[in-house]
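User: Show me a protein chain along with its predicted structure.
Assistant: Here is one chain, sequence first, then structure tokens.
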Amino acid sequence: MTRSPLLSSAVVFGAGVLFAGGLALSGMTRPGKVIAFLDPLSGWDPSLAFVMVGGILTHMLAYRLVLRRPSPLLASAFLLPTRKDISPALLVGAALFGVGWGLGGFCPGPGLAAAASGAAKPAVFAASMLLGMFVFKLWNDAQQRRAARQAPVSG
């Protein structure tokens, strides 16, 4: 089956708009609401737990249904992760994610959605996140080049 790149892009864009709208509607783009959820000792706001549980349940159901298909609607094959280990990089990344979320009140999706508002705080968050991703890519590429140079040549 031939898949149109334009159709794929339109579906991805539509999904992103729907996701951003859901984040805004649920309050996840408001740092104060997120921090109130993360701080159970100062007037805890449990409402975001319902958002998360709703997202997790929706994903669990959709994941099972989608994987019953022989292939995705807009791709020739499923691209699923194969790694199952917990690496130091995963732990450090998860810790940085949590610290950033707690300090800034944004995680990546809501941060980008809020940055679209033009407000300074989410724009700084989004720019910092993108800079961090760029620096990580440079570091990771250098690590891979170093590992490739040190790998024994078989022959």
